[in-house]
Amino acid sequence: MSAEATNPNSVSPEIRPPAQPAALQRAAQSRRRGRHRIDLRRLGRAALLGHAARGRTPDAIAHVAEAHRAHHPDADLSLLSRAYVLAESSHRGQMRKSGEPYITHPLAVTLILAELGAETTTLTASLLHDTVEDTDVTLDQVREQFGDEVCFLVDGVTKLEKVDYGAAAEPETFRKMLVATGNDVRVMSIKLADRLHNMRTLGVMRPEKQARIAKVTHDVLIPLAERLGVQSLKTELEDLVFAILQPEEYARTRTLIDDNAAHGDPLAPIAENVRGVLKEAGITAEVAVRPRHSVSVHRVSVKRGALRGTDFGRLLVLVAEDADCYAVLGELHTCFTPVISEFKDFIASPKFNLYQSLHTAVASGGGAVAEVLIRTHQMHKVAEAGVVALGNPYAQPDPAETASDGERIDPTRPGWLSRLLEWQEATPDPDAFWTSLRADLAQDREITVFRSDGGTLGLPAGASCVDAAYAQHGEEAHACIGARVNGRLATLSTVLRDGDSVQLLLAHDATSGPSPDWLDHARTPAARIAIASWLADPSTAHDAGPPKAAGADAQSPGTPPDAPTSPGAPTGGDSALRAAPENAVTDLPDTSVRMAGCCTPVPPDRVLGFAVRGGVVTVHREGCAAVARMRALGRAPVAVHWQDTADCRVTLIAESFGRPHLLADLTEAIATAGAEVVSATVEPPTEQRVRHTYTLQLPDATGLPALMRAMREVAGVYDVSRAQHPATA
Fold first, then answer.
1. For residue 632, what are the contacts with CB-CB under 8 A and spacing of at least 6?
2. Rounded mean pLDDT of 455-482?
3. What are 449's strand-pairing partners?
4. Would the pLDDT of 151 be above 50?
5. pLDDT of residue 443
6. Active-site hit among 88, 100, 130, 134
7. Measured between alpha carbons, how far apart are the two ends of the chain, in Å?
8. Which one is catalytic: 59, 133, 265, 345?
9. How many CA atoms lie less than 13 Å away from 716 in the CB half-sphere?
10. 133 assigned to active site
């Protein structure tokens, strides 16, 4: 039984439910202002009086039927009547903690969805959404009487038992619900309406429970409502949460709103002027003042400080066609003074949650600035109800909506939901899933980037090339060594912007892997989980060379290994080291060696090796920090010795003061010493200091000291050292 379903025998009839806190009462009053109030107690009495006559819609669902017919005039109400009869009979005798019959809850949830325009199947499942969880009704009974679709929706919103899951019941319930939402978004529509009604009646709960439920609503359900575009539910949930979690700020904001209302609405005369302008232009439009809700007013007050009278609302202009939106915009910008910085076109570029509208702001003759929203009636319906307004995408299969592999395309399954479903599979731990889910939902904006093969990637705002790599290639992104953004080489830490084109460069070395620094640049849970799993695997080598830590590739594919790159181009010295022939050998059969990027050993350094995956032994200097860490992990060292051949590859770092022609002078000194430049990195100057990193091929290791002296003698260079980077294993 859910938290709000109680046994009437355990509650004395003399005990009345506790009064709601003043903040919640004010929130409820402001919510109901201007809306026909429904008497839930009367609905409860109607439910207890018994069923309606055969063939007649029960009186208790008359409000639901009326709201449903307003959006779907031809809807068959017999299914709703049968669902109500089952819900009322199964919940009979159960009471809410507010003292009302429990059936009033599924009725209220169903009415919320009916007013949004949900179709009959959703409303049927909404009436039954607590039957399996709180009564003796089974899923098989629901399936037998109402079909597979209704059964799937009811199962999707049914909570998992704490007896079976303990503390993991809540995160695992949300996981189950999200997986179900991936197959049918109507599951989440019902959950959002269910939470909204529970939040409306939360005043009967203990304060600590109110705070806990409000926090989960704030962290998880409000972001989900935003992403699904159900703004009418989202805004009311925000106000109810605001009243509970920040009661003082909520009371202050309500006082501001009430004081402004007492002085009249300054937007009303501006709205009348807009109507006159559009009428003269021959544009048929509805113009209304749309008050801001409490949280919106609070955000504006935090952003702007003192509020003007016009900050408490916006003008909403509704027209018939898309072209009319731009005609209205032209008239407003012609007849009023536009605030250009406030213009946004979400019709040409819709938001990731289906939202479309033109946003602008104009100044009237008196200097008052009014924000204006311009959209069609259909856009307004979608802006308010989001995916609920799309109805049932599965009702009438269309060959055009079927994928080439026969799988049906769901127009309501957005990219963010697909990504969420992918990474949750790799997160079996409930606590890790719960933390990652909240972090993912905290990203409230999405960007689109273009892949080199012509496809697109949807990513959260702030995503980097690391995120793009894992979004496109999955675990193959472990081998990513760089990227080109808009045709130019870029580090993997580069933050992507909406509309960027990204070409990801993968190494051919099977032992390549991510650096721990990648975690600092990853924003998506999918990328972070994959990187953390690779780093935690003891069978992998975690040697981080200098460019690898930055996540950049040295050269584009096809570049000769001895071709130096241009100054400032990010390079991949570690990947170059791994690809080069080594002059260290081990006695183990069927193994190859590579020089560790963290300490770049060369003859005659004393070295040790450690076996990693792929039949490779990584060679470190004996004093390298990675050696101590590997031994601490119980990794046995492998004996390694240098071959007779004297050639070697080494990474050197030159610290210098910035000056013209410095790169040319350094490369000339290197060439004079007989060394070849494999790759080079020139970091941006910092406080007039510049760092150059070179990976060099020397014909004889004994010439290394002379080469380093020659580089130090170049004017401006104050230090040259062997690369020594923090090891992570």
1. none
2. 84
3. 457
4. yes
5. 66
6. 134
7. 50
8. 133
9. 17
10. yes
